[in-house]
Specification:
The protein folds into four domains: about 60 residues, no CATH class; about 60 residues, no CATH class; about 160 residues, Rossmann fold; about 80 residues. Helix 9 crosses helix 11 and helix 14 crosses helix 16. It starts with a strand and ends with a helix. The protein has about 475 residues and is an alpha/beta fold. It contains 16 helices and twelve strands. The longest helix is centred in the first third of the chain and has 34 residues. A hairpin with a 2-residue loop joins strand 2 and strand 3. Strands 8-7-4-11-12 form a five-stranded parallel β-sheet, with helices on one face.
C-alpha cells in the first residue's frame, strides 16, 4: 500500500516501512535503483504526469497494483457481477414502474359507469345535432315567411338542403338584431285627438349635450330654446323621442325634459334600434305609423339610413349657444298645417336638407312678396270699394300673409297650453303633498283594516275634490296678490 503526503513518501517493501525524505524531482536519476525503487519511480512519474495533464486519473499503475498483490481477474469478475446486479435491479425497477402504471390504468366500477355515461352523452348529442340539421334543412312550410324562402325552392338535393339550413340558421340571430316588438308604438289615437304628423327627434347632441371633465365629471347641458321647441310643436306633432343611447343612460334625461309627459308622447332608446351592418339604425317603419306622415330629425347619418327621404339631417350640437332649434319651427309648422298626404316629396324638394330653414325662409320671402303684390292689385281694381272709401281698410285687413296668421294662432294656442301645464303641475304638487301620506302598514293588512277597492276609489275622489278646492283658493290668492 502506497500513500503520498507532501514531499515525503513511505514505501511498503518486505513487511517494513522505509521513509524517503528526498524531494521528488524529475531531474533525479535512479537508474541503478532496486525493484521497489523502480515502482516508486513509476509512482512519482505518474503523479507528475497527472499534475501536468490536469486530468483526474489514477496514479497507481497495474504493475504497482500487481506487485502489491492485487488480482486483476478477480477484480474484473467482481466488477462484471456488480454490473449485472445493477442492470438486474434497473430491470426490476422498470418492471415495478410498469406494474405501477398498469395498476394506475385499473378503474373502479364508478369510473366505468362514468365513462359509459359519457359515451352515451356524446352519442345522444351527435344524434341530436344531426336531427336538428335535418329538421332545419327540410322543405319550406306554408307559415314560413316569404323573405326567408326567397330564391330557395323545395327539394332534397344537397345544394337546396344546405341553402335552407343556412337560411333558417341565420334567421335565429334576428332575435338579437331586431327590436323587441314588431310595433314600437301603440295604434294612433282616434281622429279628434290625433296629431296630423309624427316627429321623431334624437336626444343626444340635438336637444342636450353631455361631456365629462376631470373637475366636474359628467355634465349635461340643455340646448337653448328646447322647452319652447317641444312645447310649441307638440300642438302639431306627435313627438317621439328616439335616443341613441341605452335606456339606463337616457331615461333620466328624458324625464328631466318633460316630467309630466306633456310634450313628448313616447320615449324610445337604443334597445329599439335595428342592428344591421355593424350599426344601430332607427327604423321608423316599425313605429306603427304611416311613413308618409313621419318626419325624423337626427345628427347621425347611420341612424336614418333605411329611410333617408324622411330625415332632416342636423349637425351635432357642441354645447355652445345657438338658435337652430328655433329656426326649424317655421318649416315644421308649415309642414303640419298644410294637410299634406306625404311629407317625403316636400323634404326632397330642398337642394341641401341640412339648410332647410334657410332655403324655406327664402321661399317664404318670395311668396310673401308675390302675395302682397296680388293683394295690392285686387284692392286697386275694386272701384266699388274705392268709391265707398273702404278699400284701404279691407286691403289692410286682408293683406296679412297666411303663414303669419298661422303663426299668430299657434302662439295663442301655445300660451293657453302652457297655462294648462302650469295648472296641472300645481295640481300634481298638491296631490303629492296630500295623497303621499296615505299609506298602509303590515298591521293593517294583518288585521284587515285595508279598505276595499271601491272605498279607496271613493277616498281618492274626495281627496281630488279637496285638492281642486285648495287649488282654486291658491289661484285666487295669487290673483289678489298680483293686483
Amino acid at each position: 500500500m502506497l500513500r503520498v503526503l507532501g514531499s515525503t513518501t513511505k514505501s511498503l517493501s518486505k513487511g517494513s516501512f522505509r521513509t524517503i525524505t528526498k524531494p521528488v524531482s524529475s531531474s533525479i536519476n535512479w537508474v541503478n535503483a532496486s525493484a521497489p525503487n523502480r515502482s516508486l519511480i513509476h509512482f512519482t512519474r505518474n503523479l507528475q504526469q497527472a499534475k501536468k495533464d490536469g486530468e483526474p486519473r489514477s496514479i497507481l499503475t497495474e504493475d504497482m497494483l500487481a506487485k502489491a498483490g492485487v488480482d486483476f481477474e478477480e477484480a474484473d469478475a467482481k466488477k462484471q457481477a456488480h454490473d449485472s446486479e445493477a442492470s438486474s435491479s434497473d430491470k426490476e425497477d422498470h418492471g415495478s414502474s410498469s406494474s405501477n402504471k398498469k395498476r394506475r390504468k385499473r378503474q373502479t366500477s364508478t369510473d366505468v359507469k362514468r365513462e359509459r355515461y359519457a359515451n352515451w352523452f356524446y352519442i345522444f348529442s351527435l344524434s341530436g345535432l344531426a336531427g336538428c340539421g335535418i329538421y332545419m334543412g327540410r322543405d319550406w312550410e306554408a307559415n314560413d315567411p316569404e323573405e326567408l324562402k326567397k330564391g330557395i325552392s323545395n327539394g332534397y338535393t344537397p345544394n337546396l338542403f344546405v341553402q335552407r339550413f343556412k337560411a333558417r340558421f341565420n334567421s335565429m340571430f334576428t332575435y338579437f338584431q331586431e327590436p323587441p316588438f314588431p310595433d314600437l308604438l301603440p295604434p294612433p289615437p282616434p281622429a279628434p285627438y290625433q296629431r296630423p304628423l309624427t316627429l321623431v327627434i334624437t336626444l343626444e347632441d340635438f336637444l342636450v349635450h353631455s361631456e365629462w371633465t376631470q373637475k366636474n365629471g359628467w355634465r349635461t347641458a340643455k340646448r337653448p330654446g328646447c322647452d319652447y321647441f317641444l312645447g310649441y310643436l307638440s300642438q302639431y306633432y306627435e313627438i317621439v323621442l328616439f335616443s341613441s343611447n341605452y335606456m339606463m343612460y337616457s331615461e333620466k334625461i328624458a324625464e328631466k325634459l318633460d316630467p309630466i309627459h306633456a310634450f313628448i308622447s313616447y320615449n324610445l332608446f337604443k334597445e329599439h334600434c335595428v342592428y344591421k351592418d355593424a350599426v344601430h339604425i332607427k327604423d321608423i317603419s316599425k313605429l306603427n305609423r304611416d311613413l308618409g306622415k313621419v318626419v325624423t330629425i337626427d345628427t347621425a347619418p347611420d341612424s336614418y339610413k333605411l329611410q333617408p327621404e324622411n330625415a332632416i339631417p342636423m349637425e351635432p350640437w357642441n354645447g355652445q349657444a345657438d338658435d337652430k332649434l328655433l329656426a326649424l319651427i317655421p318649416f315644421l309648422e308649415y309642414l303640419a298645417t298644410q294637410q299634406v298626404n306625404d311629407v317625403r316629396p316636400i323634404l326632397n324638394s330642398f337642394h341641401d336638407k341640412t339648410k332647410i330653414p334657410q332655403e324655406f325662409e327664402e321661399r317664404v320671402v318670395k311668396l310673401k312678396s308675390k302675395f302682397n303684390q296680388d293683394q295690392r292689385a285686387k284692392s286697386q281694381g275694386n272701384w266699388a270699394l274705392q268709391l265707398l272709401g273702404v278699400a284701404n281698410s279691407v286691403g289692410s285687413s286682408g293683406s296679412k300673409f297666411p303663414l303669419d296668421l298661422i303663426r299668430e294662432e299657434g302662439e295663442k294656442n301655445y300660451v293657453r297650453f302652457m297655462q294648462l301645464i302650469e295648472e296641472e303641475k300645481e295640481k300634481i304638487r298638491l296631490q303629492q303633498e296630500h295623497l303621499g301620506n296615505q299609506t298602509f302598514t303590515l298591521k293593517d293588512y294583518v288585521e284587515g283594516n285595508i279598505p276595499s277597492p271601491e272605498e279607496q276609489l271613493q277616498m281618492q275622489m274626495e281627496k281630488q275634490k279637496e285638492i281642486d278646492i285648495l287649488y282654486e283658493q291658491n289661484k285666487k290668492e295669487k290673483a289678489v296678490a298680483v293686483k
